[in-house]
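Board notes (copied after class):
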Amino acid sequence: MQLTQIELKDLVTQIADETALKIVKYLLGKEDISEFVIAETLKITVNEVRNKLYKLQAHNLVSSTRRKDKEKGWYIYYWTFKDKDAYELYFVFKKKKRDDLVKEIADEDAHNYLICDKSCNRMTFEEALEQNFKCYSCGGVLKEEVKKKNVSIMKKEILVLDKELAKVKV
C-alpha cells in the first residue's frame, strides 16, 4: 500500500524537512534517478540533495546504486524511493508516538508539576523546591499545574493513534 500525501508529508518531515519532501515527491514512481538530475530539477545544490537523501536512507526510505562516470571518473548515485518501506515505517513511528504518550501519562500520574503564570518552565516539586518555588526565567511564583487537561489531551491523541494503528498490522 502507499501512503497518502498527508501521511507522506508527516513521515518525511519527521525525518528531515520540507526540502526532503520535495525530493521524495520528485522520486515517487521513478527509479534510479541521478542526484544531479534531482538537484537540477528542484534547483537545489547537489550537496543538499545528498544530505537529505542520506537522512532518508538512514531510515531505509530510499535506496541507491552507485555507478562510475566514464568521463570524469566520479561515482554518481542513482536513487529510488521505497514505497513499501515508507508505509511500514510510518506506522512504526505512529506506534512509537503512542508508546511515548503512554509513558508520558504514567509520568504525569507519578509526579506533581509546577508552572509559572507565563508557562516559561515546568518543574517537578523537587525542582521547584530547589528554586524556592520561583521560575528561574521570569521570577514568577510557581503554582501546581492542572494535570487533568494534559492527560485528557494525551488520552484523546492515543485514541486517534489506536484507530490509525488498527487499520494496519505492522
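Comment from the instructor: DSSP finds seven helices and six strands in the chain. The chain has a mean pLDDT of 89.
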